Amino acid sequence: YPDRLEAALEARCPEVSQCHIWGKSSERFVVAVVVPAVEGADTDAVQEVLAAAASAASLAPWEVPQAVHLESAGNPFTVANGLLTASGKRRRAELNERYREALEDLYARLRSGTDDPSSGGARSPFQRVPELWGILQRSLPSLRLRTPPERLASRSFAALGGDSVAALRFCGLVEQRLGLRLALALLLRARSMSVVEEAVAGAAMSGAGEVRVEAHLAGGPGDVDWTAECSLDAEALLAELRRRAEDAD
Question: How far is CA 155 from CA 84, 87, 137, 145, 170, in A?
Fold first, then answer.
């Protein structure tokens, strides 16, 4: 499975000579070691082209590397250094062992901004309902954590990379943490996350148990794009429900 992701990314990224995808069963996203095509490559630039390539390849959000460790362009994976087989295939055990510390560090740094934004991570862009920051990050593993948080609130859920399954996850976390049932249609059609925040805050203050599309909007009908796609991907939804069932076992 990782080799399919690596092949898809390498084929679409001339800036990337080789990449090694690494994931953990305890995490909902992957990280990668990248050997750039030229020396002196910028980490942010490499991650940008990987994200673009992942989008072009229609990879799922959790298949997109959320952080990369850049190897020197002059130190690729080869047969001589024991990282490739004689037929050119990756020796995954050897790659994992060689880069384990660097990859674990990537996860640690990502978690510092994901698990508890108030301690060591970026400040929540949501002033009225700060909890939405953590919920948003947990719902969107592909969210670029280095993007200035203040810019996130002005973007729609879809613009941040959210699909129907991520929206379902977001609504579930809102109900779990805040005790409110958030209408999926509102999340998918709100023109910005600040509109969602105002709707949630309004419902919480009024004592309502649900956040409906028609009610609690910050500035009226203009806050909702009624033409936005609001359908669920049945296959992806089924996969998400199966994952939840497995987590519950």
Answer: 43, 47, 14, 15, 16
Closest CA to 195 of 143, 154, 135: 154
Q: What is the predicted pLDDT for the residue at 119?
A: 32
Q: What is the pTM (predicted TM-score) of this model?
A: 0.50
CATH for 2-113, options being 3.30.300.30, 1.10.1040.10, 2.60.40.1120, 2.60.120.10? 3.30.300.30
What residue spans define the domains of the chain? 2-113, 122-212
What letter represents residue 23's amino acid?
A: G
Structure tokens at 22: 């690494």
How many beta carbons lie within 10 A of that of residue 99, not counting itself? 20
CA 1 vs CA 34, 161, 165, 189, 191: distances in Å:
17, 23, 21, 34, 36
Encode pLDDT of 134-147 as tens digits.
788 778 766 654 45
Contact yes or no for 185/213 (Cβ under 8 A): yes
Instruction: Note the pLDDT tens digit of each residue in 178-204.
Output: 788 888 888 888 888 888 888 888 777
3-state secondary structure of 90: strand
Band (pLDDT 50/70/90 cuts) for residue 221 is very low
* Domain 122-212, classified CATH 1.10.1200, yes or no: yes
